[in-house]
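sry for the spam today, last one i promise. struct tokens for design, 398 residues
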């Protein structure tokens, strides 16, 4: 029988390095693929690793394991699909999640195509998640499960994947804890054994966001308006009255609108698109009893709204809305129909503990109402819902 070939994305990190070794132990013919997705180091903070360093480490690991390493330049696809999207979202006052998009558009699209060109039977990544294949009504269905390490579970970042993208995917480290991965790498004397986990934007690294965005979004002076807590609606009592009625859910879960006349100007900024809900740093406004946090923005009029203190009600929301076109089911066989209501635990950011929520499906979209108000629900980010360990679907927060 012919040995099955697996192409693994070798990133220069410890997770993909150990994943490659594990695949070898399972009897696969393993080859590595390194993708150059970002070349501009001018926006990267000093001390962060560039792709040149990453590829050197990937080559060292490939040599140690005795596997071929293919290097391809996919920076043009990355710029068009990820970076341009980021600029558009920030310009419109929304905060995108490039890591989620990077997985959907690059790691599980461009990468799959390249792997296929290299004759792969399967492709693999170093993500901390698991996959299970089951048969439902005579058809194979892929279940995307959380990683065994709850502190490193990366299933949220894969919340936009579909069945075809998961079909031939392997996640070799998903059943391991991070310390176990580090230990294996050390025992194998891999060059990546002690390397720190990457941070910041997928494939770009840690950046100064205003500097990064200034490539296309130029600075523009605007007002910072402080909103007092009394001007924030009591959404907890609103939720008890909504009871699934679309008109009331629109008010509860729709985007918040602030009025300058309801606040006081406390400073100026250099561009509302450089800030996101919950942000504290970069406001450069002092003299307030408690720190100021961003609670909203109006990019059309270039106004930034802030509130005092980490418990300001403007930082919390009871619910969110996902437009029909932005609803995505990893398990389409479980998709909700208009008029349905279901209870699912959900999260609105990576590493957030799952929160109890009720999902209401209507023709125009889906409302997600949480049992407890959530801090930092941000337009443009992704809300994902689960059933136990299984990630069922996700959507862009409106």
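last one done:
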């Amino acid at each position: 029988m012919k040995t099955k070939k697996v192409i693994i994305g070798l990133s220069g990190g410890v997770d993909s390095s150990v994943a490659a070794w594990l695949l070898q132990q399972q009897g696969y013919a393993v080859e590595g693929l390194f993708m150059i997705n970002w070349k501009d180091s001018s926006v990267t903070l000093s001390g962060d690793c560039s792709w040149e360093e990453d590829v050197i480490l990937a080559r060292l690991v490939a040599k140690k394991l005795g596997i071929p390493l293919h290097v391809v330049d996919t920076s043009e696809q990355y710029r068009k699909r990820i970076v341009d999207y980021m600029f558009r979202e920030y310009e419109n006052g929304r905060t995108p999640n490039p890591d989620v998009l990077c997985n959907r558009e690059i790691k599980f699209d461009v990468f799959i195509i390249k792997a296929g060109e290299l004759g792969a039977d399967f492709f693999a990544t170093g993500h901390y998640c698991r996959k299970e294949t089951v048969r439902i009504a005579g058809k194979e269905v892929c279940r995307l499960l959380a990683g065994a390490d709850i502190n490193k579970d990366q299933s949220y970042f894969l919340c936009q994947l579909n069945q075809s993208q998961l079909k031939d995917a392997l996640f070799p480290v998903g059943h391991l804890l991070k310390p176990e991965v580090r230990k294996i790498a050390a025992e194998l004397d891999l060059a990546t054994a002690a390397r720190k986990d990457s941070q910041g934007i997928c494939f770009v690294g840690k950046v100064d966001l205003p500097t990064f965005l200034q490539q296309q979004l130029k600075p523009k002076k605007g007002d910072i308006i402080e909103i007092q807590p009394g001007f924030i609606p009591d959404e907890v009592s609103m939720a008890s009255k909504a009871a699934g009625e679309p008109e009331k859910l629109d008010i509860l879960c729709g985007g918040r609108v602030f009025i300058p006349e309801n606040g006081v100007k406390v400073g100026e900024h250099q561009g509302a698109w450089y800030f996101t809900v919950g942000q504290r740093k970069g406001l450069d406004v002092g003299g307030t009893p408690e720190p100021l946090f961003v609670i909203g923005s109006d990019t059309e009029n270039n106004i930034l709204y802030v509130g005092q203190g980490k418990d300001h009600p403007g930082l919390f929301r009871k619910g969110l809305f996902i437009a029909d076109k932005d609803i995505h089911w990893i398990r389409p066989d479980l998709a909700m129909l208009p008029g349905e209501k279901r209870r699912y635990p959900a999260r609105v950011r990576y590493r957030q503990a799952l929160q109890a929520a009720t999902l209401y499906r209507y023709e125009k979209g889906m409302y997600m109402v949480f049992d407890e108000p959530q801090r930092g629900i941000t337009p443009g980010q992704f809300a994902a819902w689960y059933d136990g360990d299984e990630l069922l679907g996700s959507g862009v927060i409106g």
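The mean pLDDT is 93. ok im logging off now
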